[in-house]
Amino acid sequence: MASQNGSVLMRVLVTGGSGLIGKAIEQVVMRDGEKREGEQWIFISSKDADLLDLEQTRAVFEKHRPTHVIHLAAKVGGLYLQMRENLHFLRDNLRINDNVLWTAHEMGVTKVVSCLSSCIFPDKTTYPIDETMIHLGPPHESNYGYSYAKRMIDVQNRAYFAQYGHRYTAVIPTNVFGPHDNFNEAEGHVLTAIMNKTYKAKRNNTTLNVWGSGKPLRQFIYSMDIGRLMVWVLREYDEVDPIILSVGEEDEVSIRQAVEMIAEALEFKGKIEYDTSLSDGQLKKTANNAKLRRYLPDFTFTPFREAVKLTCDWFVKNYDHART
Ligand code: NAP
Ligand code: GDP
Question: What positions belong to coiled-coil segments (predicted)?
Fold first, then answer.
């Protein structure tokens, strides 16, 4: 949206602005020349407002008076943290999402783009999964708390449209990774946890321990690609129905292949062991990006190997202040 006289036409509040995807969106709009005249972008973290609290949520919306919201803030974590804390994933995310969507409604926000995830789809399903299948059966038992809370965003978006005509929508990213991710070994997602473990195994000359069999398949997407796509969704995508943001089905890789690429990127030559006593989580959650391709047939994804290398390099360079 452009302005003739330099006035702000679109004030975008990004919740979760300090996280993996928030930082990528910030880079896209603030540094990569994607910012448009008439747009103002505000990135907030839990330090600006604890969105679990309705009054703090209202106060931060009052302060910034957004016309548009990208809602990223959430309790987020890898498989093993989710298995330990299903109740907290459910409660925290239900509360944060309800506070943000209701406050957006109260303050007349025109558009909200929230984040679902491909791990919230039914466990027993046919493949590939598409946007119409979110509610067609229980999610995998490992992450039902996060999944049911996220599914409710889609229910809320439909209800806000039915009752108030709001165009609040959601994206469904597959596994995201990149700079500013959480590299914590016990709590992070697989790639960044493995990058940290590999870095330490190389430094200490020890074995790299991978959890699970390495057989599950995932579609990984680089955070900068998600950042560009979410800015497009905010500006151009007009449906209430969600849209899957993913690389193609042909780009699915096994955890084992991903581990080998990380070892290569970090030049780790030691022994790699797979602990098959630990859960594998979902074997696969192959998602179909046909809807995205209908809108953006020419969008180019960063090749996985290149994105792994970029993230490993960022981690090594920023080791002292990365989230570990
Ligand atoms: P992240 O790096 O863990 O960042 C989480 C963000 O949420 C941080 O900015 C954090 O603020 C904020 N936050 C957490 N609790 C909050 C609270 N109570 N009040 C205010 N802010 C709070 O997460 P991410 O990977 O960027 O994920 C962003 C969104 O994408 C989430 O909705 C997630 O479910 C979704 N998603 C992620 C993936 C993935 O693979 N990472 C895949 C699909 C969907 P602080 O920095 O202050 O803690
Ligand atoms: P998911 O894609 O939602 O299941 O979440 P993750 O990003 O946590 O990936 C989990 C998959 O990676 C499972 O198959 C795990 O067995 C495997 N994995 C291997 N090592 C690790 C690790 O150190 N941390 C995590 N989170 N997953 C690992």
Answer: none
Burial class (CB in 10 A: 0-12, 13-18, 19+), 108: exposed
Residue recorded with tokens 């997602």:
189
Which residue's CA is the nearest one to ligand 1's atom 47? 46
Q: Are 245 and 309 in contact (CB under 8 A)?
A: no
Query: What does the DSSP 8-state code read for residue 251?
Result: G
Cα 51 to Cα 94: distance, rounded to the nearest angstrom: 11
- pLDDT confidence band for 7 (50 / 70 / 90): confident
pLDDT exceeds 60 at position 241: yes
- Mean pLDDT in the chain? 96
pTM score > 0.70 for this model?
Answer: yes
Cα 16 to middle of ligand 1, angstroms: 5
CATH for 10-178+220-248+286-301? 3.40.50.720
Catalytic residue among 80, 146, 168, 199: 146
The pair phi, psi for residue 199, each rounded to 5°, is -55, -45
Give the model's pLDDT for residue 6. Answer: 65
C-alpha distances (whole Å) from 140 to each of 82, 95, 167, 177, 282 are: 11, 22, 29, 21, 7
146 is catalytic: yes
Does residue 80 line the site of ligand 2, with CB under 6 A? yes
Token pair for 254: 């096994």
User: Residues 252-267: pLDDT tens digits?
Assistant: 999 999 999 999 999 9
> Strand ranges (DSSP E) for 199-282?
208-211, 217-218, 220-222, 243-245, 253-254, 272-275
Task: Give per-residue pLDDT as tens, 270-302.
Answer: 999 999 999 999 999 999 999 999 999 999 999
CA distance 103 to 49: 13
CB 96 within 8 A of CB 52: yes
Give the pLDDT band of residue 32 (cuts 50, 70, 90). Answer: low
Q: Is the CB of 173 under 6 A from ligand 2?
A: no
